[in-house]
Amino acid sequence: MIWSGVRARLSPFFILATGIALLAVGPALAQSKPATYEGKAVRIGHGKAHTVVRTDANGKLTSIGVAFTPGMLDGLPKAAKGADPDFPYLLAMPTKGPKTVVDHVVINWESTGHPPSHVYDVPHFDFHFYLVSHADQMKVVFKDEKDSGDPSQQPPAELLPVGFIVPPGTAVPQMGVHGVNPSAPEFHNQPFNATFIYGYYNKQQTFIEPMVSLAFLKSKPSFSGPVPRPASYTKPGSYPSSYSVKYDATRKVYEVALEELK
Question: pTM for the complete prediction?
């Protein structure tokens, strides 16, 4: 009853000013700790996967990734003889949180791997972080897989990291052409564990792609590696300088993440 009496004597201006001050403090308080935003989960194999966007205490973007349960590595589909061994799974980005250069993610389960032989022809996952809309991704067409060697599909030098090339034989419909690093260990008689690829279509960057072998994931790794950066990007925004492939034994979850964004 004492408070009600005091409140009755407060001026309307004081009450209004106090309310405005509280509203101003609200967003600041909301930014006082790191935040995680998650996309809708999709079932893959015996597990689930979803996109993850993380920010620091100041609301700055720190990572863009895909989190998944261990069950995703089991019960995966196998292609019938002569059928396409690639199984794509579309993941939407979180509806809340900061916008990123990534429009959506497609996890491609390569059940028997893909060319070149003795390099990527083992079961693995391609984590495609697309910079274009899904509708534009579906419009990617080629006459032949060798189209990636055609001058019309060779990106300008400033869009390729130093040392990367776009060789013939990497043009994939509804995906793009692939820029690879021929100095990567898997091209020099080393086992393929994890690697990083850039994707293009009509001379523009269309995706960025960590590739990870099934065997490496099953080893429950704690891996981080650098991401070679081109001189410029087709789409303005923050891009990774490193990526990671990690298993969190406490949470029992894997995460493949683009990190050190700038």
Answer: 0.88
